[in-house]
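Quick look at the format.
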Amino acid sequence: MLISLIAILPIVTLIILALFSKQSFLLSAVLSLMVLVVASFFVWEIALVTILASAVKGIFVALEIIIIIFAALLIFGVFTHLGGAKTAKQFFDRISPDYHIKATLIAWAFVAFLEGVSGFGTPAIIAVPILISIGFAPVTSVIISLIGGALPVTFGAVGLPVTYGFAAVLGQNLALEAASLITILNIIIAPIVVAAILFVISKEKNRLQDIWRRSFFIIFAASAVSIPSFIAFHLLGPELPSIIGGISGIVLISLYAILQKRKKINNKTVLASQNLMPFMPYITVAVLLSIIKIPFLENFLRETVSINIPSILGTTVSHIFYPLASPAIAFLATATIFFVIFWWKKEHHYAREIILSATGKIGVPSLALISILIFAQIMLHSGINNAGFPNMVEAVANIFYGASATYTAFIAPVIGALGAFITGSSTVSNLLFAPIQQSLAITSGAEEKIIIALQGMGSAAGNMIGITNILIALAVAGIGLKKQSRSLKKDKERREQDILEAENKVIKTNAPFLLIYILFAGALGIIILTSGLI
């Protein structure tokens, strides 16, 4: 038991520092990593070269993710430069006078698309200002954007929560099995997410009755995103579900709005008159990703170029990377195409500005990500020790030894949500807690893919109240930016108070929806386990 408590100490340190100290998440991650290294060296008696090799492995994996994020930010920069935010605002503002449809289109379908192509704060950067510009209150815009992203985050940022969050620590086969189950669970839970958005914006005294009256639209809008996502996963893999689901949702809900207005000619004009040029970068990315995922071509790309390190620093720790099969290729190729267009039009300075902006945004998050990946890899390889102890992941799982399979299923989404709440990232939550969830599944006799899927569902839902996500969204919404007086000190204090009040309101509003979400996910997990349906 003592070994288990020592094994969980670095994780507890991270939770305490991230939640209760005023330090940045980066510093919290670094300090927690130091606790882990001390425990690894002095308690588990892991050779220093093995710790270093695990750290190198963590850096390699982190760099793969960082390249994808950087490339996605480049495309976001191109999208912004081409007037993407303005074009999106015009489209959503004109498509329907019904604020329920507008909110669903932007906070659900459009956010799903944005989560799929970029993630990591991008949905808030674009969606929140659009919601505010068409009449929603700033804090309300933040709340519904965070709620709407709770489901598509499972395959956000070109599938990173699966392709790296799960696969990097569990292996590709189990990651894909769990992801397949997630696509089914998403279809079932999607109406809850859409209903939550409409509940928040409802102007009726009896909000539940208002939601019930709109039940057909809720199911339709939920299915318009979740079912195409399911199909996309099974045809094209984990990189495209949120992208294709978001696009399908925008198209289908827009068509619903047209039929509702019964002014087909005018509405078709609205659709036809839109400038699609800003969306061409993302359309190009989606096409290239689809091509890369063709099985024979993907295998060819993997075989053509691979970086294989069978023994890092002479240890049993290894790493392999297939650069041409990485989603980053599609983003980088698309960015290059548009940079060439800028150069041809003598607007090469725009390319430089986009690159500098992406570089500035990726800095601190990259360091935090590297710290977390090193943390995860040291824990995963801690079984290579001289003390004869099990690896730290198994030691942590032993705390729950004897827990039933149903209890494990019930608690799995809670753990995933906690990880996202702390880190603000589904990918990082999966990296940290998926190995522990796997060990819990094994010790409790639960099927591994079910527990891992519930971890993924929880880690996505936790973004509703993730501190970093809330702060990014509030900043974009302009909360705390207005000057209140001539005193700089008073201005600062007032801004901090405004941000704190808004942050508390977001958490208090979204926490009940998060609770409903994870309880429902846990209940579904128990039903699947006990019935043997899947």
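Next, a different chain entirely:
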Amino acid sequence: MAYSSTAKKAVQAGIELAIPHEMSTPEWAETYRVVDRGARKGRWSNETVPFLVEIMAAADDPLVHEIIFQKSSQLGGSEVINNIIGKRIHQSPTEIIYCAEKEDKATAWTQESFDSMVRVTPELQRLISRKPEENNQKYKAFPGGGLHIVWATSPAELSSRPAQVIAFDEKAGYKPTKEGDAVKLGQARQKTYDGEELTIFNSTPRRCDCSMPNETCGDISHDFERGDQREYYVPCPHCNELQTLKFGGKDCAFGLKWDADAPESPWYLCEHCAAIIEEFDREEMLSKGEWIAAKEFNGVASFKINQLYSPFVSWGKMVTDWLEACRSALKLETFTNTVLGEVWKPVEQIEYEDLSWNLEAYPAVVPPGVLVLTAGVDVQKDRLECEVVGWGKDHESWSIDYKVFHGSPGIEITNHDPETDDLDTEPLSSVWDDLATYLMSSFVGVAGQTFRIQCVGVDSGYLATTVYKFCKRYAAKRWFAVKGMSDPFKPMLSKPTLSGRNPKVRLFPIGTNAAKDDIFAALKVGKPGPAYCHFPDRQPYNEDAHMKQLCSERMVTHTRGGRTYRVYEKVGPNVRNEALDVRVYATVARVILNPNYDAIAKRRLQHTEPADAPEAIDTPAGDEPPKNEPPTKPEPKKGGKVISFRSSRFRR
């Protein structure tokens, strides 16, 4: 029986009505997605974040098997994952895995992101099972598939089930475990869907320790380089030339610029015509932007973007964050990752020839700019080495003095305290007494002000009991025992622990990797200002031997048990490194002290008391301040009315 063309068209129309058209992910998000968190709640709008449209659309391209998104924070990377998963659940259900960095982050994503999206999106709410065994923190069942929530620190979960779509969130933070590499295990489970699989990598970059040209690590930057390397180009509103937005800074001819007195109100200079672009121009520029690839497409669509594009963060906030980040290497690393969207590469080695340019003729022992002094002490078999370091605003530093006290540190410490002992009594001499006398001495500034050392870090890796006795005796002066930890992932300073038996003292653990990262980054700063290191043009600083000790180590990457880590090692077998060690301890002493530079500077201007008085020092984080000597009873004021007597001898 033959059907007329009209009948055929009617049948086709009926089929199209019965089988809904499968939307692209951007279309689905704008049609169904409701945002229930953040600053802009309500219906999803692609106009708000136009740079996310092509990334989401790549998930619908059958030729794309990997999507890589290297980005800053506040750019909607997690929302890209949410929209791709939501659209798949609604219109093309399949087996999906979401992998977080750690268990707590997986739980947070489930509760705060996915469950929130489902709760306000009726099309998803109808599909997700309500049975507890099929709707919990680890699994979400829906017709035609399921969503499994796992984390990289327990990758065995990845190897137990096949999946067509896997989303690796904050992938740069993954660490290999004994169970294996989470990414490799996950991608191995996609072989069932060979040719139809989709892997999503979403992450801010982190630290890259690769030193060889072809070496790679787990950072997202290496994944971006595997793809076609797309960046978002926007037109200048004046010359219409396309360009990527870059932070720039004062040393760059284009990018963000600002007045020193008003960093919260910056502007942007076009790299083509040098015209001023205001922040209110950004929205229109984004709407006219386009992704441009640097390499040919190979099945991997890789995207890279920074926070300058974010409609949720002002340029002024970025500049103030930058100025704050310049105060320390750790903050600068975080800014580089989360704001610039770039990988952080720590300084691997310092060449001592470069440091000779930092030598200066100080106008006084303590030059202008110094607000507080700390010291570090290294314990050797036949001597103690000590450096006094001055610190100023934004952790700018000045080497003040370097002393070597010869003698065996193993000699019993005397009871000598030059501030309390009878001056006519001759104390027993020891290298520790010499050190104590030196640390309690004063240092003179340009206007005759006296500075005293406010905190000391003493290495307890050798002769720990003796060091504990020394630090216990002078605990009220903030002289603390410190010890470098072998764990390469330790922060510069951890909460102190009570160590030793007789006596018990607070021992501050040091993350030597983090401390040396900070020092090497500071040594690389090229001009006076935040973090810059000043050295006096006198012995031992003007001797090659001392500067070589500061540069005596380099960063080396090792792999053990499938885990890559990095440590600092000496550049040669017979190289001395005491100068670097004492600088570490003096730096840690500054971190323990946590000085309030503004308060100290204000006090100096008022000339009411010594600028480095203990009252101008913040309490070390996570620790109680040392107890000083009990205050003397104040003299009663003469005259006046007696309110009451508390002594029992006056009671009847």
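The mean pLDDT is 82.

See the schema section for token definitions.
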